[in-house]
Amino acid sequence: MAIGRALVSPARLVIIDDPATLLSYRYQQILLALIDRWRREGVAVLFSSNSLDHIFAVCDHILVLNEGTNVLESRVDATSREEVVAALIGASERQQLTPIIWALDSYYQVRDQAQRLYHHQQQLERDLLVQGTLNQSLIGQLAAQVKALDQANLALQDAQRRLLTEREHERKYLARELHDQVIQDLLSLNYQLEELEAETEENPALHREVVDVRSGIRTMVDDIRRICGNLRPPTIDSLGLGAALQSYTQEWAARTGIALRLELDESSGRLPEALELSIFRIIQEGLSNIRKHAYASTVHIRLHHSSPRALRITIADDGRGLPPDFDLALLAEHGHYGLLGISERVALLQGKLRLHNQPGGGLLLEVELPHPRIEAATANGRWMTG
User: Fold this and answer.
1) Any idea what DSSP says for residue 357?
2) Is the separation of the CB atoms in 87 and 74 below 8 Å?
3) Alpha helices, DSSP H only, in 50-93?
4) Residue 234 in this model has a pLDDT that exceeds 50
5) H/E/C letters for each residue in 263-307?
6) In DSSP terms, which residues pair with 325 in a beta bridge?
7) 239-386, which class in CATH?
8) What residue ranges do the domains of the chain occupy?
9) Number of C-beta neighbours around residue 165 at 10 A
10) For a Cys staple, 367 with which of 4, 63, 274, 313, CB 3.0–4.6 Å?
11) Which of 8-12, 164-168, 217-221, 282-286 has the lowest mean pLDDT?
């Protein structure tokens, strides 16, 4: 406070008594710089200190007292450390002064070093405290961001799940409308044309036209039935996943000319509707990807229990496989929309998807899905087609 008053209200005389006993090394250096500034500004400073380094650093005159007696008075630049020490201890022989001066120097150096270390320790503790507080704040912010991302991801997955469910409902409705309305109307029209065909036998040109129209209608009915099967497998609701897969894979093999072997656990039983539909769509999209990209001649599909609470789907082909630089995150850019759809469905079902080339050539697609059924499939009893 006295130093503060001296700074605020200019003084002609400032008295300072041995600051080394109260101030840290850092503040001692600040005080010495302040004393030197006062001295240059013409302010008288009476400075008492046991440190010769302090005295010789900032003082113009030196007065040495020994038990209250003035034993030395001189200008600082006219004396030496040896004379000051000699006056203090009353010795005049240099061989007596040297070890004493060395001891004093060592003492003050050690004390200054200790002060510096203490100051650095305090500064380090303050820095660590600040850094710890900052780290805690950053961790808190990061945790909040991760939580927000998790919530956004869950919301996105929920939205995708609802979208897929709505899409399946729309497909089911559209397939039913096509089957019950459009196909029936076309079949009715075909029956009417059948009667007309018999009546036009005497007119060959008209008869051929009627025959061609009836053939076109039958082709159209077949195409619409195939579209209905793609929209909603007709047997999955009544007969289950196994029958739907057998029907679809047989039709797919006949249509594409690619040999296909289907292997199913017979004892799997019925699964929840959403899971059966997802498995069917995964296999459907996998086969579509093979038809478009693989250039394969054979396909092997297997659906079995890998554990009492998990189903595994494997789709293996002998095609050209994946390119070396294939990246699952860039499926859309490579045109693999079927694989992208599989990846999204597997993620929504909390499953795992693995894609890798086989040693002998071709791609192996593996999907593992959790499911609520507890009983495992038996070792016997399998459906195999192909």
Assistant:
1) E
2) no
3) 52-58, 81-89
4) yes
5) EEEHHHCCCCHHHHHHHHHHHHHHHHHHHHHHCCCEEEEEEEEEE
6) none
7) alpha beta
8) 2-127, 128-232, 239-386
9) 12
10) 313
11) 8-12
Which DSSP state fits 136?
A: H
In this predicted structure, which of 152-161, 239-248, 366-375 has the lowest mean pLDDT? 366-375
Mean pLDDT (whole number) for 184-197: 87
Nearest to 357 by CA among 386, 310, 321: 321
Place of tokens 């010789």: 56
Residue 95 reports pLDDT greater than 60: no
Using alpha carbons, list the distances in angstroms from residue 267 to 223, 306, 310: 33, 13, 14
pTM of the predicted model as reported, rounded to 2 decimal places: 0.54
Rounded to whole angstroms, how far apart are CA atoms 351 and 226? 30
Q: Rounded distance, CA 201 to CA 35, Å?
A: 130
Beta strand segments in the chain, E: 13-17, 44-48, 61-66, 69-75, 259-265, 298-307, 310-317, 352-357, 363-370, 382-385
* Strands of 58-203, DSSP E: 61-66, 69-75
> Helix crossing, 241-256 with 273-289: angle to 10°?
10
Place of tokens 């036209």: 209
- Amino acid identity of residue 43, one-letter, is V
DSSP assigned state of 376: P
What's the mean pLDDT in 232-243?
A: 84
Segment 198-217 mean pLDDT? 87
Contacts of 336 (CB under 8 A, 6+ apart): 289, 293
Residue type, 252: W
67 vs 76: CA distance, rounded Å: 21
Is the pLDDT reported for residue 376 higher than 50? no
Which of 186-200, 226-240, 276-290: highest mean pLDDT?
276-290
**Domain 2-127, second-level architecture:** 3-Layer(aba) Sandwich (3.40)
The mean per-residue pLDDT over the stretch 336-346 comes to: 82
Which residues on adjacent β-strands are paired with residue 300?
A: 261, 316
Residue type for position 17: D
Instruction: Kindly report the backbone phi and psi dihedral angles of residue 335, in degrees, each rounded to the nearest multiple of 5, phi listed first.
Output: 80, 10
pLDDT of residue 179: 80
